[in-house]
Amino acid sequence: MDNSIVKVSHLSHRYSRDWAIRDINLEISQLGVLGLLGSNGAGKSTTMNILCGVLSQTEGTVQIDGIDIRKHPEEAKMRIGFLPQNAPLHLDLTVGEYLTYCAYLRNIDRRQVKAAVASAMDKCGVAHFRTRLIKNLSGGYRQRVGIAQSIIHRPKLVVLDEPTNGLDPNQILEVRKLIKEIAAERAVIFSSHILSEVQATCDDVRMIEGGRMVFADTMKAFNNYILPNSLRVYMHNPPSMERMAAIPGITSVELLNDGGFRMHFDTTSLVSSTIIQLAVDDNWQLTEIMLEKSSLDEIFAQLSNKTS
Ligand SMILES: Nc1ncnc2c1ncn2[C@@H]1O[C@H](COP(=O)(O)OP(=O)(O)OP(=O)(O)O)[C@@H](O)[C@H]1O
C-alpha cells in the first residue's frame, strides 16, 4: 500500500512559453524536515504553490496523503498547512483572535475551536501573548504565530516558505527549534536559498535549479557531496607548477593573481598533510594553506552540470 504523505510525479509548469519547472518528482513518506533549496527563480515557489493547491500545474500530478489535489482540492488542502514567505497575519487582531479566525477558515468544528487555538498557541510558545496585538510582537513571535496558523488544523504536511528570513540570529535559532518540534509529528517542507539554513534544519534535501531537480538525497549525502576539493596555498619559495601537479592526489594547479596557488585534489585523499611534509622537506617556505569551501553558486553549477 502507498503510504506517502506527499507524492509529486512528473510535475511541470509554464506560466507562458518557457517552463518554470520541468519534470519534478518528490515523495515524502515519513516525518521530518525536507529542505527545498534553490537560488532565486529556481522554481521553489512554483513547486510549493502547486503542492499547496494555489496554482494548477501544466503537467504531472500531486497527491497529498493519497488524494489528488487537482481532483479533490478541498480534501487535499485539509491535510496541508502553509506559511507563505509573507505570513498572512492580521496585525490589528490579537494572537488569540487571529488564530480563532484561522480555525474557522479551516472549518474546524465550532466546539473544537477553543482547544485547537490553545493547542497551537502552546506548541508554538505564544500562549502568554494570547491577548497581545500581533503588530506589537517581535519578528520572531510573529513568525511563531504564522507557524501556529499553519498547524491549527493538524495537517499531515506543513509547507514553510523561507520561514527564518528577516529574523535576528537568536530568533532564527528559536524558529529552527520550533520547526524541528513541529516535524516530530508531521512532514515539513522548508524552502530556502540559504544553504546553511537548510543544513541546520533539514533531514533531507531537494535542490532545484533552472526548474529541474538537480539533487535529491539526505542532508548527510549532500554534505559529503559538497566537501571541499581545492586548497589555496601560499609559499615564499614555491616549486614549479609541474612539481605541484605531480603531488599524489593533486589533479590540477592554478596560479592565482595574488601569487598563491589553487590546488585541486580528488576528495578521497588527505593531500594537505602531504603538501605540508613536502614543503618542509624541500624548503618551499609555506606561509598559508587553506581548504576552499564551494559557494552555493558553485554547488549549483556542479550539480547542474552533473545532471545535464
Ligand atoms: N506569475 C508568473 N508569471 C510568469 N513567470 C513567472 C511567474 N512566477 C514565477 N515565474 C517565473 O518562473 C520561474 C520560477 O520562479 P519561482 O518563483 O518559482 O522561483 P523561486 O525559486 O521561488 O524563486 P524566489 O526565491 O525568487 O521566489 C522564474 O523564471 C520566474 O520568473
Automatic annotation (TrEMBL):
Q: Which SUPFAM superfamilies match?
A: P-loop containing nucleoside triphosphate hydrolases (SSF52540)
Q: What's in the keyword line of the UniProt record?
A: ATP-binding, Nucleotide-binding, Transport
Q: Which Gene3D superfamilies match?
A: P-loop containing nucleotide triphosphate hydrolases
Listed GO molecular functions?
ATP binding; ATP hydrolysis activity
Please state every residue range assigned to the domain named ABC transporter: 6-235
Output the superkingdom of the source species: Bacteria
Signal peptide residues on this chain, from the entry's feature table: none
Show the InterPro entries listed in the entry.
AAA+_ATPase (IPR003593), ABC_transporter-like_ATP-bd (IPR003439), P-loop_NTPase (IPR027417)
Q: Name one Pfam family in it.
A: ABC_tran
Q: Which family does it belong to?
A: Belongs to the ABC transporter superfamily.
Listed name of the protein: ABC-2 type transport system ATP-binding protein
Record organism? Chitinophaga ginsengisegetis
